[in-house]
Amino acid sequence: MSDQDINRFKVIQDVCERRLKRADAATYLNLSVRQVQRLMTRLREYGAAGLVHLSRGKPSNHRYPPEHRTKILTIIRERYADFSPTLAREKLIELHDIHVSKETLRQWMIAEQLWTPHSQRKPRVYQPRYRRDCLGELIQIDGSHHDWFEGRSSKCCLLVFIDDATGRLMNLRFSDTESAFDYMMATREYIDEHGKPVAFYSDRHAIFHSSNKQAVESKHPTQYGRMLHDLGIELICANSSQAKGRVERANLTLQDRLVKEMRLQHINTIEEANAWLPYFIADFNQRFAKPANYPKDMHRPVRESKNELTDIFSWQEIRKLSKSLTFQYDKVVYLIENTEENAKLVNESVKVLDYPDGTISIRYGYRTLNFKVFDKLAKIDQGRVVDNKRLGQVLKFAQQKQEEFEKNQARERSKKAPKRTAQKRAIAQQLRALNPVLADPSTFKASTSKKA
């Protein structure tokens, strides 16, 4: 018996022994007079045990059948063992048409050690920062390296853009690495969809912040910083990862939810994931996004033309022309077309625009210069005249050179040049759009039909 039951027993016993009136007992116990009479009758028939509810210690009459509980836990153990109770309940409803309350499922998973309640976890210390007031005022960006496809594909990086005021995912993009070209393409997708925000908030990665402490950032910005400056967007770098905790916590949530969602959707490649991500973003924002303190949208319209944006979202470097109208960029010699107008450009500086799709453009002011390429790494020797008696030695030497080439893959570009991973993927997508065989020649099958 509980303390309340013991107290009730003393009061009802006093009523039975006529030391207390039933009306006074009802007022004291907050019961009706008729209920006090019932308790008196049960006390006389069953003793003190009659005052305890008869269902105490017995299973509830409204409980789920044991077979239903076993079925649900079997599904969770087989398919959703690492899911949280909330996410597991969502998938049970969406994919299996099984309805169960969230708290009931949580208790079941705790009992089966499929979930650890937050009260049993180590406490965390957070120093909160107030959210910004409006959408588009501050966008936190970060790259999350993770085994997103759980071994079905190689490890890659997810570029995350999240709004500080609302917690909305503004853009997601998978890429092989966290490179400047990848951020350029992700930012291009962002402004095409939402417009220009007031500022981006990032860490001190070399893509955003110059590693040269002696350099003045305003005079020597990074390529990404130069791009945002041309667009009129402020770039703010945080001193620690805790300062941009909004995107860091979003990365943890995505590493839990997004990985499992792609597993259920049978998504195994970066291309498939990038095509499906807009649906995930819409569902994520519907569940977790919060309204801003003020309804004003701080995004500005994009006033630059498509060609101007293409030039802005490129790797730009300055080169000086020699007397022969040539210059070197990324271990490739570029020969400017020798015309009467171009002959005046000797010793002048030109701008090299290296686009994410792998194409190159050379500008002098607002004028585009025609050029030819001489790749020092791709030189081909002309056919040699070899005496018949020495042909064996020449073939042996050629075989050794081929083995060295296959072993070393001796084609290394300049370390100062941008990484080409994003460009290779962009070129492969263009070839795949033209003809899938161009992107993957192994899929080609010769026709066996013969025309009469």
Automatic annotation (TrEMBL):
Q: Where is the composition biased (Basic residues)?
A: 413-423
Among InterPro entries, the record links this protein to: Homeodomain-like_sf, Integrase_cat-core, ISNCY_transpos, RNaseH-like_sf, RNaseH_sf
Q: Which domain of life is it from?
A: Bacteria
Enumerate the spans annotated as Integrase catalytic domain.
124-309
Q: Where is this region: Disordered?
A: 404-426
The name of this protein is ISNCY family transposase
The organism's taxonomy opens as:
Bacteria, Pseudomonadati, Pseudomonadota, Gammaproteobacteria, Vibrionales
